[in-house]
Amino acid sequence: YDVTSSSPPRLPAVDTVVFAVGFDRSTGHKIEEVYVDGLRNVLERCPADLKRFVYLSSTGVYGHTSGDWVDEQSPCAPTRDGGKACLAAEKLLRAHPQFGEKSIVLRLAGIYGPDRLPQMAQILRGEPLPVAKDGFLNLIHVEDIVKVVQLSLSAKSPDLFCVSDGHPVRRGDFYLHLADLLGKSLPGFEPPAPGSSRAARARGSKKISNRYLKEQLNPDFSYPDYQQGLRAIVENSGTTDPLN
Predict the structure, then answer these.
(1) What does the pLDDT look like over 21-78, one tens digit per residue?
(2) Which of 15, 99, 183, 232 has the most beta carbons within 10 angstroms of its beta carbon?
(3) Which H or E run includes 19?
């Protein structure tokens, strides 16, 4: 299903739509074409009696850089293209005359899981990591995202949730822990290349609160912090080198 098509097919008769569309730079599309125009295309082709529309957004909508706590009430001032596109998509959904009142927005923290561990290859090769070690990482395991999506179907409508495990960690500590689990020595850090996406990401630093998520949906996370999540990924790989 190509959400960027000018005339994608109508969706079948369903009760719920979950819009979980990533951005692939290799397609040649602009991120706004995928996140905003793509969402509009899908909304126009939803069945009229749809009961719930769940949009997977990003905590990138916040532009905080000082490492302070952020929640659903915090102001949004994204500085990166992805965050700007997600915020525009959220506004489009909320303003929709038919489905805005049936919508749930899930602002996801950094997603990790099997085959999705940032910088693992560099650690295994003994290369310095091009990251800002002092900024905060906010994480959520992919399996726990699925749990939250399922729970959100019973939430009041409309609603907004920050989806994080609630245990922000400084990037340096995260990669030190990962290297230790892999049985490797961390080779150190180096500044991200100027103008790169990593450099833009490095300027952001915030701590995502999941208090409202817990109060309203009470998810039973399989991986309530990054230590447990990383340990399970490495152990389940059967080797200290999950890439082999």
Answers:
(1) 988 887 888 999 999 999 999 999 999 999 999 999 999 999 877 889 999 999 999 9
(2) 99
(3) strand 16-19
Say what angle helices 171-181 and 226-236 make with each other, to 10 degrees: 30
> Beta strand pairing status for 159-163 and 69-70?
unpaired
Rounded-to-integer distance, Cα 145 and Cα 147, Å: 5
Eight-state DSSP code of residue 113: B
Residues in the chain: 244
Cβ atoms of 120 and 135 within 8 Å: the answer is: no
Q: Are 133 and 104 in contact (CB under 8 A)?
A: no
Residue 153 near residue 209 (C-beta atoms within 8 A):
no
Please check whether residue 211 is in contact with residue 71, taking contact to mean a CB–CB distance below 8 angstroms.
yes
| C-beta of residue 64 within 8 angstroms of C-beta of residue 207 | no
Q: How many whole angstroms separate alpha carbon 129 and alpha carbon 103?
A: 39
Place of tokens 């152990």: 235
Residues forming a β-bridge with 17: 53
Please choose, from the candidates 127, 115, 230, the residue with its C-alpha nearest in 3D space to the C-alpha of residue 178.
230
Q: How far apart are CA 7 and CA 208, in angstroms?
A: 38
| Cβ atoms < 10 Å from Cβ of 175 | 24
Q: CB neighbours of 226 closer than 8 A, spacing ≥ 6?
A: 112, 137, 139, 165, 167, 169, 174, 177
Residue 112 — φ and ψ, nearest 5°?
-140, 165
